[in-house]
Design brief:
InterPro entries: Glutamate-rich_WD_repeat, WD40/YVTN_repeat-like_dom_sf, WD40_repeat_dom_sf, WD40_rpt. With 366 residues, this protein is mainly beta. The chain contains five helices and 25 strands.
């Protein structure tokens, strides 16, 4: 683990060094560019590792990000140790590392072939180091427990309760044994591993496949879900009830997107902010704390003698729309830099930082 320190050491420098470190260019280049009045083109450094079959989804362990788990379309889940590659990138500064364009052949440190089909659902526990949960297209969910010696015990008996493919999984940010799942059957289920292999509660969440989930790490009662019909919903888990047919937990429902939701994620820096991507080639950022203020609009109109030209069909919670990518698949917020997002698509990936949301995010050290 000593070598792994190379990565966090560079990432946790002072505020004044953050921009330089994250731009993948050294301070000399930055100063030269400033003197010339221009900015350097971004430098992308990468290391490629061969993977057997298509990568359906890949996730890094929260506590040890060099350990990653990948779902293969061949039907198995593999665990990888990428510390060698991360350290090579951390040490390389601006020069392209030798062999940077080649593909490295590396054996996974663990390979599980017990699922009956391929899958997409996978999530590392943010609370218990090494604990993992995976779900497949045959509606089965498996719990992984770490053992000594970089191996895992995968529960022989799966969690069952969904009637179709399990599409996404999210661990509770506050409970060690609790996780949520969503499925093509339109349902979301909450599970407690201590209570057996059936869901503690299951409810109809959307009228179509539920593709993605995000459990809010800052406001742990809030769960967001995105559907194949283009809608996404926010639920307050405190209001879930097994005794009532009426779903009182739904606190917000948006139908802005008209094509399937492909990714959804709460901001790690602001509890009311989340980002959503869709097959309509749009990435949207939302702040659920915003509401239409008719008094403010009237005051503005009185002062300027003009009508407020806010489109009637745009929700006031919609902060930003990012376009220009084809077939958006996934987005993630940067854990260190408030407001920064990376998004992947069939034509590449973007890194964006919308200027109009900076005022809604907390300042560094706040």
């Amino acid at each position: 683990m000593g070598r792994r320190e190379l990565v966090p050491t560079k990432a946790t420098t002072s505020d004044s060094d953050m921009d330089a470190d994250n731009s993948n260019s050294d301070s000399d280049e930055d100063s030269e560019d400033e003197e010339e009045g221009g900015s350097a083109a971004p430098i992308l450094q990468l290391r490629k590792v061969a993977h057997s079959g298509c990568v359906n989804r890949i996730r890094a362990m929260t506590q040890n990000p060099h350990i990653c788990a990948s779902w293969s379309d061949a039907g198995y889940v593999q665990i990888w140790d990428f510390s060698t590659h991360l350290n090579a990138l951390a040490e390389s500064e601006t020069e392209v590392p030798r062999g940077g364009s080649s593909v490295f052949n590396q054996a996974p440190i663990f390979n599980f072939k017990g699922h009956k089909d391929e899958g997409y659902a996978i999530d590392w526990s943010p609370r218990v180091t090494g604990r993992l949960v995976t779900g497949d297209c045959k509606s089965c969910i498996r719990l992984w427990e770490p053992t000594s010696g970089a191996t895992w015990n995968v529960d022989a008996t799966p969690f069952t309760g969904h009637t179709a493919s399990v599409e996404d999984l999210q661990w509770s940010p506050t409970e060690d044994h609790v996780f949520a799942s969503c499925s093509v059957d339109g349902h979301i289920a909450i599970w407690d591993a201590r209570l057996g292999k059936s869901p503690a509660i299951s409810f109809k969440a959307h009228n179509a496949d539920v593709n993605v989930l995000s459990w809010n790490r800052l406001a742990s009662v809030m769960l967001a879900s995105g559907s194949d019909d283009g809608t996404f919903s926010i639920r307050d888990l405190r209001l879930l009830s097994t005794k009532s047919e009426e779903d009182k937990s739904l606190v917000a429902h948006f139908d802005y997107h008209k094509h399937p939701i492909t990714s959804i994620e709460w901001s790690p820096h602001e509890a009311s902010t989340l980002a959503v991507s869709s097959s309509d080639n749009q990435l949207t950022i939302w702040d659920l704390s915003l509401e239409k203020d008719e008094e403010e609009e009237a005051e503005f109109k009185a002062k300027t003698k003009e009508q407020v030209n806010a489109p009637a069909d745009l929700p006031p919670q919609l902060l930003f729309v990012h376009q220009g990518q084809k077939d958006l698949k996934e987005l993630h917020w940067d854990a260190q830099i408030p407001g920064m997002i990376v998004s992947t698509a069939s034509d590449g990936f973007n890194i964006l930082m919308p200027s109009n949301i900076q005022s809604t995010l907390p300042s560094e050290g706040a």
